[in-house]
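Notebook p. 47: complex prediction with glutathione.
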Amino acid sequence: MILTSEAGPAPRDMTMSIEQFIESEVKSNDVVLFMKGTPQFPQCGFSGQVVQILDHVGVPYKGLNVLDSTDLRNGIKEYSNWPTIPQLYVKGEFVGGCDIVREMFQNGELQKMFSDKGVSVRQAAG
Ligand SMILES: N[C@@H](CCC(=O)N[C@@H](CS)C(=O)NCC(=O)O)C(=O)O
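Predicted complex, structure tokens below:
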């Protein structure tokens, strides 16, 4: 029998390791944000800042709430070898946390990276 987690947007087939789950998420979604809370309701200021930036840039993304799962919260730190949340992945590659994303946004690198990697943005807001 396949068991899945009780609730939340990303039920995990419990026969999968957390590493396999993370890998499948970052490989099947162009942009993934591991965060505290949800894009609609961030539960940490750092996660909230990245949400604001991604929404401003107009890129579609999947938010995964690490507060739903201790396994995911610890697993993503190990997977990326990065100690904190949020963590942004684009096309399967780790980009960084809040400080890095904010800096890249401010100097235009974030928008360039999306375009270089062929990730379409809805429109450049503002
Ligand atoms: N400087 C970090 C700020 C993020 C941060 O400090 N996150 C903390 C508080 S939300 C964290 O993930 N701590 C470990 C944890 O809560 O599991 C960044 O650029 O992303």
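Notes: Confidence is low (pLDDT under 50) at residues 3-7. The chain has one domain: 18-117.
Next step: compare against the earlier run before touching the bench.
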